[in-house]
Amino acid sequence: MSYVMIENLRKTYGASTVLSDIHMTIGKGEFVTLLGPSGCGKSTILRIIAGLTDATAGSVSIDGKDLRNIESKNREVGMVFQSYALFPNMTVKENVAFGLEMKKMDPIEIEKQVRDMLAVVRLSDKEKAYPQELSGGQQQRVALARALIVRPKVLLLDEPLSALDAQIRKKLQADLRAIQTELGITMILVTHDQEEAMAVSDKIWVMNQGGIAQCGTPTEIYTKPGNEFVANFIGHYNVFSRQELEQLIGQPLPGDHVKFAIRPEAIRTEECPGAYQVKAVAKDSMMSGNVIRTVFQAGERTFSIEQLHQQARVFEQGKVYECYVESNDVIALK
Amino acid sequence: MKKRGLPELFFLILVIYLILPVLGTALYAFSTKWNNTILPEGITLEWMAFLFQDMKFLEAFGRSVLLSGGAVALAFLFIVPAIFVIVLYFPKYEKWVQAAVVLVYAFPGVILAVGLIRAYAHLGVPMIFTILGAYVIGILPYIYQGTRNSLRNVNARQLLDAAELLGASKTQALLKVLLPAVYPGLFVAALLSFSILFGEFVLINLVVGSRFETVQIYLMKKLNSSGHIASAVVVVYLVLMSLLTAVIYGLTKRMKGVAHT
């Protein structure tokens, strides 16, 4: 059952089209990510859902209610901004209490709920601090608490972690997912970080140039990229034209697709009977966390393979190796 | 121990260069006689006492406060709301405000004074109101910069959006969130504008002169009659400006990441 429904959404600024004919359905309690490069229109979708930007055409509904003529403050939608947007003249406690005060809730109840919410985001000891006295990660947790305390139907997260360093970002990703699971709230995250999207989402909508490029679970998106854009944007896929790949493997490929993608970890150097075989020269190797990525050259075409660090075979630069790819690891792109 | 070098020496020379005239003026304001000696012959409060018993000075001081304060108040009544609307909702029109700001700097005081007399004297508008209007425009650069920087520093548009999404009306968002967040910056802009207008002499002297005697005109008159009293006026003026500067400094320091001008 769709909880958030976006239909035929379009947004233009003069002659420039920011969103074209967007259709999305999101289930209740789902954690969904809009993933895409800068300028693809993902934040605009959030702003339209929040009522901060008007759509040129189309509609957004939450829990069956059409939001078109409803003001931001009455939409029951929360939002966490990239720059936190904490009220600098208020303490942490006052920031978190703001939404409840606007609802004219009983002060004793506000006090209790604020205390509980600060405990959820592990900031009970900071209630008297001002935002500028907190670290970036702490400020973002205050912003999260402030948005969650009013129990919005949908929480919108506009690149909330992008200004934080990698370690804190990973910690907050886990926190975000844990809080979402605990409260069962529907969340829509906007990010351009595919690892972040993979880590927290139930479903990912990959966006490109104002449209939806692909939608699916993180596993579906990663293992079955539907088109060249998604394959290039997710991970480090090797993308080949039919001609390039046929030249590499020395045999014709079935079907009539013109582009193919191969995951870097699907290319192996251990002999694999029945697999496509490519002779290639090892070039540079690069370590990225627990993964070693090595670039190979076959003719004029390069491709990369990835191995887990502990199980990695060491490739001698300039030496020729036999590489193997199983046919079911060659993904035909639309 | 770290050796003192040339930079410190130059800094010391600069400090002496800046402080010596002020110190000399202050000493002269409290000296009985200082003509043929290196230091004053004696110290007295006579000139200061005279100044504060002179109704003309007190009236001039009152007029300066009224004129400068009035211009700042008018600017806050009409210009600040306009800047709020432009910066928050119509940023594409900011270029016009910026052009107006540059124009303010483009007119030297004498040309402005002649222009004001030619344009308004025959209309029957009291020239002091013309001066008031000119002052409001004159402080536009300080008001504009102060307001715009405060709004940008706190990311005002996003604060309003956040407040509205939390259930606040536009008025509540403005009164409970935005104004308290930017008021230190606005206050600093107001004090800065006030202190600049308080020291203005060219326009008021050329357009109105003795008909509306401000502290600066009073000072000019006293320069011809008594150097001690003129020095006492300067000391009072400097004390007032120092107090305003201290308040501005204190506020700017307190604001930290909140709003700066």
UniProtKB/TrEMBL annotation, chain A:
<dbReference type="Pfam" id="PF00005">
    <property type="entry name" value="ABC_tran"/>
</dbReference>
<dbReference type="GO" id="GO:0005524">
    <property type="term" value="F:ATP binding"/>
</dbReference>
<keyword id="KW-0813">Transport</keyword>
<protein>
    <recommendedName>
        <fullName>Carnitine transport ATP-binding protein OpuCA</fullName>
        <ecNumber>7.6.2.9</ecNumber>
    </recommendedName>
</protein>
<dbReference type="InterPro" id="IPR050093">
    <property type="entry name" value="ABC_SmlMolc_Importer"/>
</dbReference>
<keyword id="KW-0067">ATP-binding</keyword>
<dbReference type="InterPro" id="IPR003439">
    <property type="entry name" value="ABC_transporter-like_ATP-bd"/>
</dbReference>
<dbReference type="InterPro" id="IPR027417">
    <property type="entry name" value="P-loop_NTPase"/>
</dbReference>
<keyword id="KW-0547">Nucleotide-binding</keyword>
<dbReference type="InterPro" id="IPR003593">
    <property type="entry name" value="AAA+_ATPase"/>
</dbReference>
<comment type="subunit">
    <text>The complex is composed of two ATP-binding proteins (OpuCA), two transmembrane proteins (OpuCB and OpuCD) and a solute-binding protein (OpuCC).</text>
</comment>
<dbReference type="GO" id="GO:0015418">
    <property type="term" value="F:ABC-type quaternary ammonium compound transporting activity"/>
</dbReference>
<dbReference type="GO" id="GO:0016887">
    <property type="term" value="F:ATP hydrolysis activity"/>
</dbReference>
<dbReference type="InterPro" id="IPR017871">
    <property type="entry name" value="ABC_transporter-like_CS"/>
</dbReference>
<feature type="domain" description="ABC transporter">
    <location>
        <begin position="4"/>
        <end position="234"/>
    </location>
</feature>
TrEMBL record, chain B:
<keyword id="KW-0472">Membrane</keyword>
<dbReference type="InterPro" id="IPR000515">
    <property type="entry name" value="MetI-like"/>
</dbReference>
<keyword id="KW-1003">Cell membrane</keyword>
<keyword id="KW-0997">Cell inner membrane</keyword>
<dbReference type="GO" id="GO:0055085">
    <property type="term" value="P:transmembrane transport"/>
</dbReference>
<feature type="transmembrane region" description="Helical">
    <location>
        <begin position="96"/>
        <end position="117"/>
    </location>
</feature>
<dbReference type="InterPro" id="IPR035906">
    <property type="entry name" value="MetI-like_sf"/>
</dbReference>
<keyword id="KW-0812">Transmembrane</keyword>
<feature type="transmembrane region" description="Helical">
    <location>
        <begin position="9"/>
        <end position="31"/>
    </location>
</feature>
<feature type="transmembrane region" description="Helical">
    <location>
        <begin position="65"/>
        <end position="90"/>
    </location>
</feature>
<dbReference type="GO" id="GO:0005886">
    <property type="term" value="C:plasma membrane"/>
</dbReference>
<protein>
    <submittedName>
        <fullName>Spermidine/putrescine transport system permease protein</fullName>
    </submittedName>
</protein>
<dbReference type="Pfam" id="PF00528">
    <property type="entry name" value="BPD_transp_1"/>
</dbReference>
<feature type="transmembrane region" description="Helical">
    <location>
        <begin position="186"/>
        <end position="208"/>
    </location>
</feature>
<keyword id="KW-1133">Transmembrane helix</keyword>
<feature type="transmembrane region" description="Helical">
    <location>
        <begin position="124"/>
        <end position="144"/>
    </location>
</feature>
<comment type="similarity">
    <text>Belongs to the binding-protein-dependent transport system permease family.</text>
</comment>
<feature type="transmembrane region" description="Helical">
    <location>
        <begin position="229"/>
        <end position="251"/>
    </location>
</feature>
<keyword id="KW-0813">Transport</keyword>
<feature type="domain" description="ABC transmembrane type-1">
    <location>
        <begin position="61"/>
        <end position="248"/>
    </location>
</feature>
